[in-house]
Amino acid sequence: MSDTRATILVTGGCGYIGTHTIVCLLQKDYDVVVADNLSNSSIVSLDRVAEIVGLSEHDRASRLVFHQVDICDEAAFRKVFESSPRFESCIHFAGLKAVGESTKKPLLYYDNNLSGTFVLLRMMDEFQCHSLVFSSSATVYGAAENMPITEDTPVGAGITNAYGRTKYMIEEILRDFYQSQTLEESTTDWSITILRYFNPVGSHPSGKIGEDPNGIPNNLMPYVAQVAIGRREHLTVFGSDYNTADGTGVRDYLHVMDLADGHLAAMDYMKQKKSGIFTFNLGTGNGYSVLDMVKAMGKACGHEIKYVVGNRRQGDIATCFADANLAKNEMGWVASRDLDEMCRDLWCWQTQNPNGFAGQPCESQ
Ligand SMILES: NC(=O)c1ccc[n+]([C@@H]2O[C@H](COP(=O)([O-])OP(=O)(O)OC[C@H]3O[C@@H](n4cnc5c(N)ncnc54)[C@H](O)[C@@H]3O)[C@@H](O)[C@H]2O)c1
């Protein structure tokens, strides 16, 4: 850690979005402390981050510090704060995110995602770090009907799973917490940004880091990529009778590097605003259907992706895409990478790491 560079705490920093964001942080000359229990990630991911950024072993020891810790374990997490310089800001990715699993194990999801956030807020308060970026999700909009979705669309109603409700609840908790900070004094130095992600896809263009799902992928594009590389025989498209141009579900996919940039934009915005609680959609504002995505991935990998059409999946809606103008107008953030880039980079990751991080180190490939 350095006297001149600011240090950022990244919870869940070994995961998909965390690693991409850390690349951006290190490249913008921040030092990073990662707190992750590796429940859904591999430590190899941080080796790859160091490779991408070109950190020497010496620099890595000081600029990218890893703590294997469950953030729900207050005593253990306190040690992270005690042993680090004061954090300028925290980006809070740590959480469980598998929608289907959350329906089967709601208590695990409520416990992990809510308790982790409680402990984090207590530690941030105690150790004087008053700037937080929180990973929320478009899922908080439930079954919103008016597209594109703006940030003032009602949230909470119509969420179909426990995972989504943890995100909604945490948003509410953050608002209550922020309000509490303004009670005694009319001003506070706390600033909190809630980022509602749409559908991040793709990888760093080097192909060294990417999404590495455990078992059967929950999300469309990792599944499509595994079909493309021959790990799975075909994709099942859930429903082709929606009220959309080709009958398949439409979503707002954005490149994970654009999403990563959004966290740095949020940190800059909070610095400029000094205090407040802010909410932004992060998406492209474009909707692509399942078949658009299948076609784009076919183009990236050079052969057709096999698919079969199945029944609709319970809880799925026809169309969901963002109005991302608030993030553009307020933070100056726009998603600039297109669908071809998303698929090209996903394919680069998939071909270099057909078995994810469980394979051999990337440098030798
Ligand atoms: N990927 C998406 O499509 C998407 C969409 C919307 C929101 N989000 C949210 O963004 C965040 C990051 O998502 P991701 O795709 O990178 O997920 P991920 O699972 O790849 O990363 C989350 C990381 O958090 C860690 N973690 C979980 N519980 C922890 C705990 N108690 N203590 C310490 N570490 C813990 C995991 O080991 C993992 O490394 C999550 O909060 C997720 O809910 C993701």
From TrEMBL:
EC number(s) recorded for this UniProt protein: 5.1.3.2
Pathway membership, UniProt: Carbohydrate metabolism; galactose metabolism
Reactions the enzyme catalyzes: UDP-alpha-D-glucose = UDP-alpha-D-galactose
CDD domains xrefs: UDP_G4E_1_SDR_e
One GO term describing the cellular component: cytosol
GO-annotated biological processes: galactose metabolic process
GO molecular function, one term: UDP-glucose 4-epimerase activity
Cofactors required: NAD(+)
Enzyme class, broadest EC rank: isomerase
UniProt subunit comment: Homodimer.
Record-stated family: Belongs to the NAD(P)-dependent epimerase/dehydratase family.
Protein name, as recorded: UDP-glucose 4-epimerase
